[in-house]
Amino acid sequence: MNKKKLGIIAAGVALCAAAVAGYAMFGWKKAHHGKGLNIDLSQPDALIVTKSLSSLPRDLLTIPLARDVLREDFVFYYEQNGDKLGLQGALRRIAYEHQLGWGDQLIRTVLDEPADVALWREEDGSLKHFAIAVSRNSMTRLLEQAGKVALKDTQMTLAGEIRVEGDKVALYSLNYAHKRTLLIAARGTRMVILSDPAMVFGADGKADGKAETTVANLLAADPKKQQALRQQFHLDAQPVDGHSVAVKADVLAFGYQPFFGALDALRFDFTKGQWQTRALVDAGKLAAGGYDNRALWPVLPHNPAACFALPADWAAMKTVLGDVDASSNVAPLSEQLTGPAAVCWYGTSRLYTPLVVATRKAGGSDELYGALFAAAIGNKKSGAVQKSAGPNGATLWQREVATGIGPQHPTLAVSGQTVLFSPDRKLVEQALAVARKQAPAIADRLSDSSRTVGLIAPSALAELIRKEAFDALPSAREPVLRAAADAHLVPRLNALKKYPPYRLVLKSLPASGVSWQQVEWQAIDK
């Protein structure tokens, strides 16, 4: 197994999500029937640029871990997806009744031709809305036929019009299943398909101005306008010989990306039979000291399930920490903290109890950390904040908090220049033991900690997934779901466990501007 094939293994989960999003496009979103979606069509959250969308799941399985964990039924599932089959049936019915020749041609045009697929988040954070843009010479004939069908068909109707470079362009809605409707527009050699008419039209039936401009650009004859969405991701306008999947960091960080604004997006490229990873880094937003993580890994306990170091923008914390800062005469917390921060999950703990580590400047005061802990953790019904002295001059704040899953004991600690927090006090205690040289650190197994930006240990990650999945299942009195989990989930987790830990290494940083930097996954010997 060569390094390039290993290079994307740890990013397989993110890529898998993007692949599923792209290929399952024919059934994600229920039609809103006039309700606005409140999304900015000019600002997609992810973008897939591909030579053939239908080959993306199969190419994903060239990743050894994806092949072992997802297996071939991943491909078969999406080839036999119910919504895709429903759309095929609707198009075949329309083609047959109206004596047309494009029953399957439209689907082949979308899935088997080069395309750009833009994705947007739903309110729950999942990528559910999409727009597909393709180029093909047969679009003019399809457009003429669609116009005739829309006059007398129950499933395909005229939804409205927009202007593209002075021309009026019709938009057709295709209702292909219960509460599932696509919006289709074509002009010249260009075609755009959207997952929901509400992405363009408001409750009043009028097109949103920004959405209309975005669709018009995708349909324009000018190649530069066609590439408007690619330009947001700093992607080359040249055709991709394979696949390129770019996801904004804000999606992967569940909305917390403003706190590490220097990292804009992650990208996964498939070319010449191999996957590669890149990160979009903004040099102008890197704090003094850049993205040097060597101070973090020596204080973190070894064997995390997943751990990532991020270029924190502490100045962005001012608005969040304003009330706490105002209660003291010392320097604000945002000025006391420096360098990147790390967040780590451990197989011995839970998904909702990560360990967060940051570095503070020399001479900082402990006063504000206690005030922040008291203000942010618990409520009036929680126990009192307990401040105590730990080994080697460490200061700890703890509080018992009642939750729906029982009492928890979140802990904040300051030890020298290191700040630690976790809802699981045992993780903080382990990190303090690392600082005392009484337990091994992540850095003990890293040859170059300064450019290491992430780690994934498949074995520990599998244990964490198993624990969370089975705890989320109904009680033992519901044997069907548990039997399904035993039959389908457990074998995949066992396949995941056989892989060694990997670290994510950022090869270089941009001197200026915003650019894609190569990221390499390297196996760590056990």
Write the layout of secondary structure elements.
Elements: H1 3-6, H2 12-23, E1 46-50, H3 56-60, H4 64-70, H5 73-79, H6 82-97, H7 105-112, E2 115-121, E3 127-135, H8 139-150, E4 156-164, E5 167-177, E6 180-187, E7 190-194, H9 209-219, H10 223-226, H11 228-232, E8 242-248, H12 249-252, E9 263-271, E10 274-282, E11 306-310, H13 322-326, H14 333-336, E12 337-345, E13 355-360, H15 367-376, E14 386-389, E15 395-398, E16 401-403, E17 406-408, E18 411-415, E19 418-422, H16 425-435, E20 452-456, H17 458-472, H18 479-497, E21 502-506, E22 514-523
Antiparallel strand pairs: 1-2, 1-8, 2-3, 3-7, 4-5, 5-6, 6-7, 8-9, 9-10, 10-22, 11-12, 11-20, 12-13, 13-19, 14-15, 15-18, 16-17, 18-19, 20-21, 21-22
Number of helices: 18
State the major sheet: 20 strands, antiparallel
Uncertain runs: 1-35, 74-78
What is the residue-mean pLDDT, rounded to a whole number? 79
Level of helix content?
25-40%
* CA-CA gap between termini: 17 Å
DSSP summary, beta strand count: 22
Radius of gyration: 26 Å
- The proportion of residues in beta strands is 25-35%
| Structure classification | alpha+beta
| Approximate shape | globular
